[in-house]
Amino acid sequence: MTAPAPLGNRLKELRARHNLTQAQLAEMVGVTRKTINTVENRVFIPSALLALKLAAALGVAVEEAFFLEPEEGEALQV
């Protein structure tokens, strides 16, 4: 199994707030349910366009939906 992508997300939590399934969110942004699943599970890093669409569909700023994970042994510099 590959290591999770360094881009974390809160998609599952945000979907739950809106009572949306992966399939419903996928339809809203024009992708498959599997794409939503792989993004949520950090298997796939979404394009900037998809990240923006997902955030907009969930009513949040992209920074609220996605965040950088520091690499092991590194502090994230802002």
Distance between the termini: 30 Å
Order of strands side by side in the largest beta sheet?
1-2
Assign an overall shape: globular
- As a percent range, the share of strand residues is 5-15%
Unreliable stretches covering 5 or more consecutive residues:
none
Biggest sheet, open or closed, and with what strands and sense?
A: 2 strands, antiparallel
- State the total count of DSSP E strands: 2
Class inferred from helices and paired strands: mainly alpha
- Helix-residue proportion: 40-55%
The chain-level mean pLDDT equals: 91
Number of helices: 5
**Rg over CA atoms:** 13 Å
**H and E order:** EHHHHHE
Describe this structure in words.
It is a single chain. This protein has 78 residues and is mainly α. 47% of the residues lie in helices and 8% in strands. It has five helices and two strands; from the N terminus they run βαααααβ. It has helices spanning 11-17, 22-29, 33-40, 48-57, 62-65; strands at 7-9, 66-68. A two-stranded antiparallel sheet has the order 1-2. Helix 2 (22-29) crosses helix 3 (33-40). The longest helix is centred in the C-terminal third of the chain and has 10 residues, at 48-57. The protein starts with 6 loop residues before the first strand and ends in a 10-residue tail after the last strand. The mean pLDDT is 91.
